[in-house]
Amino acid sequence: MSVTLSHPSSCLVLLLLLFSGHPSASGTSIPDMVNTAARVLNRARRAKLAREFLQAHNDARVSSGVPTLEWDRDLARFADKWAKQRKPDCSMIHSGGPYGENIFWYRRKNMWSPEKVVTRWYEERFNYDVKTNTCASGKMCGHYTQMVWRATTAVGCARVKCNNGRGYLVVCEYDPRGNYEGERPFDQNS
C-alpha cells in the first residue's frame, strides 16, 4: 500500500496513525505532537496566503507601471489583529490605523482566492480617470489607487472567517499609505 502526502493535513493524519497510543521516547504526548503539527500547518497556510496576496498585488502594480511591493509581517499582523476584532460582526469598518487599508467581505461557500480579491480591487481601475484624478460618479476606485500608489513599498494582508456564518473578511495594509487628497497615485513625488 502506498501513501501520498500531497496535502499538509495528510502529514498530520500519518503522524496520528504512527504514534497513536504510543508515547515517544522523549515523553512527548500525542496532544503535544498534534498541537505542534497544527502550528506548522497554520504557518504553512499563512505563508502560502502571503505569497498569493503579494503576487496578486505585484501583478496589478506591474500592469499599472509602478514598482513591486515587499511583504511585511508587521503589516500582516496589524491586518490580522484588526480582522479578528471584526470577526463578531464582519463589518467593513476601517481600523483608522497608520497605514493605507483595503477591506473586502464575501459570503460564499467557496473561498475567494487572494488573486480574486485583489483582482476585484484592481477592476476599479475602470472607474478611475487619470486626467482628473477622480472616480467616476457613484463608483469606487480608492482600493485600486491604494494598491498602485507609487510611493507604497510594502503590503501585509489577513483573512478571517467571521462568526455565525457571516462570511469572510479580508484586510490588507499598505505602507506608506496612499490616497492623499490632491495627489495622484502614479506621481513620482507622492
TrEMBL record:
Q: Which domain of life is it from?
A: Eukaryota
Phylogenetic placement of the source organism:
Eukaryota, Viridiplantae, Streptophyta, Embryophyta, Tracheophyta
Instruction: Tell me yes or no: is Signal among this UniProt entry's keywords.
Output: yes
Q: Function of this protein?
A: Probably involved in the defense reaction of plants against pathogens.
Q: Where is the SCP domain?
A: 48-182
Q: Keywords assigned by UniProt?
A: Pathogenesis-related protein, Plant defense, Signal
What organism, scientifically named, is this protein from?
Arabidopsis lyrata subsp. lyrata
Short name of one Pfam family for this protein? CAP
Q: What is this protein called?
A: SCP domain-containing protein
